[in-house]
Write a structure and sequence with these properties.
By secondary structure, the chain is an alpha+beta fold. The protein is built from seven helices and eight strands. An eight-stranded antiparallel β-sheet has the order 1-2-3-4-8-7-5-6, with helices on both faces. It is globular. The chain starts with a helix and ends with a helix.
Length: 223
C-alpha cells in the first residue's frame, strides 16, 4: 500500500512538472507568434502591455479586482478614430493570495461609440430570486434567446433598450457561453468568464477576437 501511494505521488509530481513546463514553453512562444502577426497586419504589439490602456480600463469592475494586476501580450489596431485592443489580463485573487486569474480581454475605444453604460453577463437561475434587491434585468419580449441567455443592466435603461437593436442582440446570442461585457461612454470591453486560466491563445484565437471586435464596432459605431 505504501509503495502504491509513493508511486501515485511520483506520477502526480511528474505530471505537474510537465504541465508547468509546457505552460512556460507556450508562454515563451506566444510573444513571437503575436509579433509576427502584428507585422503582417500592420498592427502594434506590446508584449509587456500598455500602462495607459490599463489605467483607462480601470474604470471597469473587471480591472479593479484582486491585486498585482497587469496587461500583457497586447495587440492593437487603430483606424478611423477607433482602437481595438486584445490582451491577456492577469491578476491575483485577494482571498487566495498568490493564485492567479487569467483572462483574454478585448477593448473597443472610440469617440464615435455613443453607447450608454451597461453590464452584460450570462443569466443564472438564482438571478430571478435576487432581482427585487438588485438591478433589474432588461429583457426584450421579441427575443427570448437573448433575454433568457443574458442578464443586462444599466443606469440608463431606456437608452440601453434603444442601443440594443436586434442585430446587436443576435451578435451576443451567437457568442460562446460565458461572454461578459462592460461598457461606459466611448469604451466597451468583452471577455469570456468561463475561460479563466486559458490565456496566451494561439494566433488564430487572436485573429478571431479581432474579427469579433470588428463585428461589434460595425453594430455599435455612430448609432
Amino acid at each position: 500500500m505504501e509503495t502504491v501511494s509513493l508511486l501515485f505521488g511520483f506520477i502526480v509530481l511528474v505530471a505537474s512538472g510537465v504541465i508547468i513546463w509546457l505552460g512556460r514553453k507556450f508562454e515563451q512562444q506566444t510573444p513571437a507568434a503575436l509579433s509576427q502577426l502584428a507585422a503582417e497586419r500592420d498592427w502594434q504589439f506590446h508584449p509587456l502591455g500598455d500602462s495607459g490602456l490599463q489605467q483607462r480600463l480601470e474604470k471597469f469592475e473587471l480591472l479593479r479586482k484582486g491585486q498585482n494586476r497587469k496587461i500583457v501580450n497586447l495587440l492593437t489596431e487603430e483606424k478611423d478614430d477607433c482602437r481595438i485592443s486584445v490582451s491577456d489580463y492577469h491578476f491575483s485573487d485577494l482571498l487566495l493570495g498568490t493564485a492567479k486569474t487569467k483572462l483574454t480581454v478585448v477593448a473597443l475605444e472610440s469617440p464615435r461609440l455613443r453607447n450608454p453604460a451597461f453590464t452584460l453577463r450570462p443569466e443564472f437561475l438564482l438571478d430571478k430570486f435576487g432581482e427585487r434587491t438588485g438591478p433589474s434585468d432588461i429583457d426584450f419580449e421579441d427575443n427570448v434567446s437573448f433575454s433568457r441567455g443574458y442578464w443586462l443592466t444599466s443606469p440608463e435603461e431606456e437608452e440601453t433598450r434603444k442601443f440594443f437593436h436586434r442585430a446587436l442582440q443576435d451578435f451576443f446570442v451567437q457568442r460562446p457561453p460565458g461572454c461578459c461585457v462592460e461598457a461606459t461612454r466611448g469604451t466597451i470591453i468583452f471577455y469570456n468568464a468561463l475561460r479563466r486560466g486559458q490565456v496566451n491563445p494561439k494566433r488564430n484565437d487572436f485573429l478571431r477576437l479581432m474579427e469579433e471586435a470588428h463585428q461589434l464596432l460595425q453594430l455599435t459605431l455612430d448609432r
